Structures are given as C-alpha cells and as structure tokens.
Here is the input.
Amino acid sequence: MKRAIVMIIDGLRADMVGENFTPLLNKLIERSQWFTQQRSVFPSATRVNSASISTGCWPMSHGLAGNAVALDEGDGLKAVSVGPPEFRERLRRATGRTLHRPTLAERLRPHGGAVTYSNSSAGSAHMQDPDSHGWLFHRNGSFAPGMEPITDNRHLDVTYDAAGDAQTTHQFCQALANPGDALLHLLWICEPDHSQHTLELGSPEHREVLAHSEQCAVRVSEAVDALRGAGDDVLFVIASDHGHETVDEIIPVNKLLVAAGLKKDMESSDVVLASSGMGALIYLSDEARGRQKKIAEWIRDQEWSDVVYEGESLEKVGQRSDTALAVAFGMAKRDAENPYGVRGFGHVAGDIFMKSDAPGHGQHGGLGAYETNPLLGISGGGFGAGKSDHPSRTIDIAPTVLRHVGVSFDGMDGKPLPPLTST
Here is the structure.
C-alpha cells in the first residue's frame, strides 16, 4: 500500500543539519533527497507555513496571511494572533470560513484519510485540518473526523517542550504500528523552535534541544523502516517550516507609526500592524487607504527595514493585494556571526503577542537567507539519496504527497517535486 509519512521539525534551519549540530539527523538526510534550495512562504513563520504545507498554496490562495493577522470582528480591524485554540472559530465567525483551499486532510478523506499529531501551537495544528476532515491529536484538543472530541487515552496530553515532543513522537509511532487505511500520517514537533526563541543559537543549551529533536526523527525513521519492511511503499518527508536568525534590535514599529503621524494612536483600527517577528504586515481601514503609499515610503526610509511590498507588489511574496492588507515588509539584516558562530542577524518588529523576544535570541518571520531556508529531505516513492538544487517551497510538499498516493492535486499552487533522476 502506498502511504506518506511527513515529519515537521519546527524552526530547524537547513544549515544546522550536519555532523556539527545534528549528526543523527544528518545520517537520515543522507539517505534522502535533500532539497538544498527549499524556501518558506512569507512570512517565514509557523502558522502561515502550516497552512501552506496543508493546502499546497500561497497565503494569497489559502487566505491566512501570517502568524498574526488583522480581523474585523465588529469593532474595526484589530491584530489577532493565530496561535491560540480559539483563533479558528474567531476566523470562521469573522469571515464565514477558515482556509480558502482544501487541505490534505480534506482531499484524502474519501481515500482513507489523514492523521495528524502536533505539538506546535493550537493555531498551527488547526491549520493542518481546520474543518476536521481527518484525525487531529493536540494537547489543546484531539478530534476524530467531524470535530468529534477524543477524551480517552488516545488524547495527546503532553507538555509544550522537548519532553512533550518525545511523548507525541511515541504516540505517533504507536499509530504507525497499526496505520489502518490512512494514506497520510503527519507529525509536527515544537522543538527546536519553541526553545530557540529564548536561547542563543548554537549554544550548549540549544545543542541539547537539537539532540532531543533528532532523536524524535530517528524514532520516526525506524517506524517508517518497519512499514517498508512489511511491504508498504512509503514516501517519507522530513522537513521544517522555517529557520531562525539572531535578534538584533526590537523596533517599536507601532509606536513609530503613531509618532510619524501615520496611525491615530496605539490602539486605533485605522492602521494595524500584525507582526510575525522579523517580518510584518500592515492592514488599513477604508478611511486610511489613502495613506498606503506614504506608509510604504516611510518604512523604506527607515534603517531598520529591508524590502517593502505594497499594493499589487504584495503578490510577489504570495500575498493578496485586494484586501485590507496593504503593506508587507521584512526587517533589516546583518550577515554576521553570533558568539557561537551561527550566521544571520535581523531586527524584529515589536510584537504584542511575543513577549519572549530579546536581542541575542532566535526569531524568524522575515526574508533572511537562513530563516527562509528550512530543511526538506524526501525518501521513497522514487526519491533516492543525494542533494538537489531544484527550486522547492513549502507549498510543494502537499502535491508531492498526493502524487505518491495517487490523489489529485488540482488547484494547488505548488508542484510535485522531481526525483534526482528527473532533474
């Protein structure tokens, strides 16, 4: 039977896969086709990339623009974090729907189904299957198809850390021992991302977290080998959603917009900043639409900013240009080494939802070379060992999975990736 097993190691930048940081994971990737040019969607953040991995689409198609977005819930535009468990229903109430494109779980429901085990944020987990077409196991709520609560010992009762990842991986591998008819099993662990936000990249503490994560990957690989040994044709994808870079300075963009006379006050709904860390989005009310170009030009003039997109140019980074979203930008970068030899610094757009941001710690969300280059290794299904420089994106994972299991991927923005023999 053809199956797909996908493992997402949250926040792992591709250049940390190797003998130095992750020797065990490196051995697994050496058995895979490593897509070295893999890129995240913008913002290079978990929740929006989760939606892109599940739908195979750019944000402009699936409708979730970032880790934080602006919603009008009846009292004007307000910044809202996608992370909390209640976000899914807030989005549905405010817009009448969740994602605008079908997920892997929805596409696979008539063909055996999909099973997801996630120890990421609830918002990220929900973006894998927001309308409950498959099985979803998460610490904030586990559900069978049709949003049927799972409250027995199958529920994922774990902590949001490396120990929780280990238990999530254990239960995931137990499920793989008796996979049933499901064509897709997906595991999403929170580390190293969760800890990187409070650690220096490359530090001894960071290395310890990486070691826990690669042990999880080894366990999943062993379960995949067992399935293959039993006769299943398994496509095994080991990937991450984005990388990390080191925080340079935290810039109070919201406060500066007010000081520049471009936003009424810190709580106003005319101009709303939705930060994803090293990248951010600005939404405008109808009354503030005339300020779009002035705001974009002002951001371009700031030393703390990098590339700025506004209006139709938003489509160049996969975002819609016909909604309240008016401006998107990345923060300025420095290609320097931190105290542990890890390259890449970037400013952060001050985020009301991310209280742990601090200079010297890890962050992401922008357009930097390291935060946008996550891991992607694929084995089985015709994929052999070796490195490929074929361009690939997080939106290409879903169509690659569907091609393997023989299900249509029509309507996806991504494309199935080619084995080395086809490049």
Observations:
- The first helix runs from residue 23 to 30.
- The chain has two domains: 2-64+99-243+372-422, 247-363.
- The chain has a mean pLDDT of 98.
- The domain at 2-64+99-243+372-422 is CATH 3.40.720.10 (Alkaline Phosphatase, subunit A).
